[in-house]
Amino acid sequence: MSTIKDVARLAGVGVGTASRVVSGRGSVAAATAQRVRQAIEQLDFKPSHAARSLLSGTSQMIGVYIPILKGTFYTPILSAIDTELRLTGRHMVVAFGCGDGNARQQAVEGIDFLLERGCDGLIVMSNALMEDDLTALGAKQKNIVMLNHFFPSMAQQCFTADHLRGGVLAAKALIERGHRHIAIISGSADAPDNAARMDGFLSEMKKNNISQNKIVMEHSDFSPEGGFAAAQKILASGHRFTALFCANDEMAVGALAYFQQSGISVPSQISVMGYDDTHSAAYSAPQLTSVHIPWREITTNALRCLLNQCYGQAQPVQKSFPVSVTWRSSVLQLEPQLKSLE
Question: What pLDDT is recorded for position 341?
Fold first, then answer.
């Protein structure tokens, strides 16, 4: 197996110069760097993780904190991070909420766990964290990026979507298809992203003169089990509705399961709309119309921002992420006679 000394010898440079080319840190003349890269290719040299760490003085590890390790929402996000890191020879360490503390305490402990293990930078996804929690990290805060949360003190390190716009688009989609009596399964009331999409949805309803008494809402926990139970409560309430908006796809899938168990046909009797447009939306029965949040693009750009900060890279970073609606078969266009009955 070739070593860095073999690469240096073939390229006609010192080991230090070859090491700077491998690590990407330090100045090397373009022609010299090209000779080193050609030697690397010719020798099929692959530096070990330990060697890269020694060369760069870093762990070459990025920590990722997520609130919970289950469901279909977080898996694509973790996959996107892992894929991008492997392309650069780096690795991911994951921590998630556990223990007896509340969500905020679990997030703080998860961040501490990742930092204690020497991660060069962190990607953090938690609605429970407060600005004070990040300020307490001192200089380490500069090597943290936030997913799906916004803090004014670190605005350039926060990557999220316009959830207010997402809620507006969901309401517009149902209104344009003739729905006026609406049910909602909301997520946690104290989650800022959920509050934004609910504000957008309800403001668009009000803008179209749809009164609050035509809307019934149940709060749940973003899980399929929560969606199932909330759908049951909404039906038991006796409130008449033609469409159900769920604040994420997992709750929508749970609601679909309850409706199927109860003999209610979707969309011919009730239309159902989700949010996030996760992988499960395309494979539910029926396939789920959902607000598309470009999570992969958000995640990839957050990671690039972090790699730029931690390793002196200069990858392009995007901050604007358009929100749209992905139409599938779970939302029905109401016939004129049905609209008139309302």
Answer: 41
Residue 14, both tokens: 């010192």
Residue 247 lies in a domain: yes
Considering the domain boundaries, does residue 314 fall inside one? Answer: no
SS3 per residue for 21-32: HHHCCCCCCHHH
CATH number of the domain residue 48 falls in: 1.10.260.40
Q: Which of 134, 159, 184 is where one domain is finished?
A: 159
What digits encode the pLDDT tens for the residues 85-140?
988 778 999 999 987 889 999 999 999 999 999 999 999 999 999 999 999 999 99
Query: Could you give the C-alpha distances from 27 to 8, 22, 305, in angstroms and in order?
Result: 16, 12, 22
What CATH number is attached to the domain comprising 281? 3.40.50.2300
Residue type at 288 in one-letter notation: L
Give Cβ neighbours of residue 213 (< 8 Å, ≥ 6 apart): none
Domain that residue 204 falls in? 163-293+325-341
Q: What integer pLDDT is reported at residue 235 of this predicted model?
A: 96
| Same domain (yes/no): 77, 176 | no
**DSSP-based three-state secondary structure for 277:** coil
Residue type, 248: N
Domain-ending residue, one of 131, 159, 187: 159
CA gap 268, 272 in Å, rounded? 10
- Per residue in 118-133, pLDDT tens? 999 999 999 999 999 9
**Rg of the chain, C-alpha, whole Å:** 25
Residues 47 and 65 grouped into a single domain: no
What does the block give as tokens for 94?
């994951």
Is residue 55's pLDDT more than 60?
A: no
Please tell me the number of Cα atoms within 13 Å of 40 on its side-chain side: 17
CB count, 10 Å around CB of 309?
Answer: 17
Whether 313 maps to a domain, the answer reads no
Is the omega angle on the peptide bond into residue 316 within 30 degrees of 0, that is, cis? no
Question: Does 286 share its domain with 187?
Answer: yes
Q: Rounded to two decimals, what is the model's pTM?
A: 0.82
